[in-house]
Amino acid sequence: MSQSLEVEKQLRAMILDMQLGPGERLTERWAEARLGASRTPVRAALLRLESEGLVCREGRGWMVTPINIAEIDQLFVYREVLEVAAMRLTVADLDHAGLDDIEALLDDCGEAASAEETHRIGLEFHVRLAQLSGNEFISRGVADAMNRLARTRWLEDDPIGHGWAEHRAVLAALRDGDAERAVTLVQAHVRESRDRLLEVLRAGRRSFRARGVMVA
Length: 216
What we know:
Number of strands: 3
Structural class: mainly alpha
Distance between the termini: 36 Å
Low-confidence stretches: none
Shape: globular
Number of helices: 10
Mean pLDDT: 85
Order of helices and strands: HEHHEEHHHHHHH
Radius of gyration: 18 Å
């Protein structure tokens, strides 16, 4: 792996795990010292993270992108459009082996799984489900939206366990070839997730700021 990709990987993990909080300022010199990298790969990594919406420019330096409630709302709308389209395409050319693989993924996440593992599998479920559509642009769009939303999992009081029954219900609808039921379930799941998260963000905006988490 090139030094630039390794720096990108480490910085992304620090941002998504909230080791670097929303609104926290960064400098290339800090990243060079912290990650033992030279300026060129650090700058390249920051530019790629900027394209993902995880960092933004702040004067002559950088900032971890603040969490923006309006943007979160728009991302959920974007996700819903893409995931609904994926359901219709998936039913039209059903990949039963792919469904089996996704179900096995859920089976691997037992009660003893960590919060990080539970989150990883939940994110992977949505991305792999979108991949069954056979449309690369849809699956990339879902992956991008999920990545941009990933930081917010740490702001919920109980992020673990939401949606697992709904995940299995979606798989069952797809196995039955019932596109409309799969669409209805996906829409309900995405909207419930959106409403729950937006309520948390709006109600806790002041307390998040007190903790150094910038929510706009």
